[in-house]
Amino acid sequence: MTRAEKYEKIIALRDLYGCSGKRIAELMGCSVKTVYAIINDPDGSKQKTRRERYRGTCVDCGAKTNGSSGYNAPKRCDACTRHHTKIWTQEAVIGAIQKWARLHGKPPASREWMHSDTDGSYPAATSVYGPQAAFPKWADAIEAAGFPRPTTGTRRAA
Q1: Is 156 within a domain?
Q2: Considering the domain boundaries, does residue 23 fall inside one?
Q3: Whole-angstrom distance between the N-terminal and C-terminal Cα of the chain?
Q4: What's the pLDDT at 158?
Q5: What percent of the chain has pLDDT above 70?
Q6: 3-state SS string over the chain?
Q7: Is 152 within the bounds of a domain?
Q8: How many domains does the chain have?
């Protein structure tokens, strides 16, 4: 379904049937945020303009970088990133996690890791864990580096 078709359906559900944003999201199988984003920007032009504003210039070739990450635009364009991406082995990832722990006094949380690399000395999170990375899960990488396996959420064992 195109964005224009989604807009028409959302407006019909809202105006003809009196559905709330939450109910529209349930019926359409998307988030409430998406519903209101489409209502406020039916053709996506505002989003496109915003992303263009965030695009930077590649430090290697001068091409435009991806602007979808907001003000944290990457330093390299997609082509140069692929060319410069280092393949991180499990041993290298473990070494980087241990280096982090020495510098910070504790192993990194995944959210800290994602925003920490200013000089390229840490592997990207996608190189640490995921389907084609050194480890299947973040917790596996932390555990392999010799630290207690991290837990998520606030659930407690009964």
Answers
A1: no
A2: yes
A3: 45
A4: 45
A5: 89
A6: CCHHHHHHHHHHHHHCCCCCHHHHHHHHCCCHHHHHHHHHCCCCHHHHHHHHHHCCECCCCCCECCCCCCCCCCCCCHHHHHHHCCCCCHHHHHHHHHHHHHHHCCCCCHHHHHCCCCCCCCCCHHHHECCCCCECCHHHHHHHCCCCCCCCCCCCCC
A7: no
A8: 3
Check whether residue 31 and residue 78 sit in a common domain: no
Q: Are residues 17 and 62 in the same domain?
A: no
Question: What confidence tens digit (pLDDT) does each residue in 33-91 have?
Answer: 999 999 999 999 998 998 888 888 888 899 988 887 777 778 888 888 777 766 788 99
Domain span at residue 123? 86-144
Tell me: do 60 and 107 sit in the same domain: no
